[in-house]
């Protein structure tokens, strides 16, 4: 068995794993998008949604290539948006600071003064 045959075998194995776990992969991508959206307070909701859609499309294409016997699918499918990570809102959710964070309209805390050390 040559090196090319081994690579083809690994590719086929990966395609089979993706096809078998397509729903789990897409669910994980959706959860990751929701977490990222929460952590960024909706600031990058549109970009996160686009990345999620592209990953789902890529997973579908990769899984379809395995279903078609290794050949690329003729007609790509666009998955339906499945939740907040895939369907961006017209406006990001309102940001509410945590209890330990000052409100945005609060006066900024005084910055510590930094003076050069005295090396005499």
Give me the strand/helix succession.
HHH
What's the helical proportion of residues?
A: 40-55%
Which structural class fits the helix and strand makeup?
mainly alpha
Q: What Rg do the Cα atoms give?
A: 24 Å
Residue stretches low in confidence (pLDDT < 50, at least 5 long) are 70-78
The chain-level mean pLDDT equals 73
Please tell me what the overall shape is.
elongated
Largest sheet: none
Tally of DSSP helical segments: 3
Residues in β-strands, percent: under 5%
Terminal CA distance reads 75 Å
- Quick one: how many beta strands? 0
Helix/strand layout:
Layout (H helix, E strand, L loop, with lengths): L2 H18 L1 H18 L5 H23 L53
Helix pairs in contact: 1-3, 2-3
Task: Report on this structure.
With 120 residues, the chain is mainly α. It has helices at 3-20, 22-39, 45-67. The longest helix has 23 residues, at 45-67.
Provide keyphrases for this structure.
mainly alpha, single chain, 120 residues
């Amino acid at each position: 068995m040559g090196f090319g045959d081994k690579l083809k075998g690994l590719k086929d194995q990966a395609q089979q794993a993706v096809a078998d776990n397509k729903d789990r992969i897409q669910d994980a991508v959706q959860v990751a998008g929701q977490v990222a959206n929460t952590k960024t307070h909706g600031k990058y909701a549109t970009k996160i949604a686009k990345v999620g859609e592209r990953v789902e499309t890529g997973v579908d294409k990769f899984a379809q290539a395995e279903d078609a016997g290794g050949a690329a699918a003729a007609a790509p499918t666009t998955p339906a948006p499945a939740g907040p990570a895939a369907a961006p809102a017209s406006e990001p959710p309102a940001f509410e600071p945590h209890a330990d964070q000052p409100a945005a309209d609060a006066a900024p805390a005084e910055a510590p003064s930094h003076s050069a050390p005295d090396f005499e």
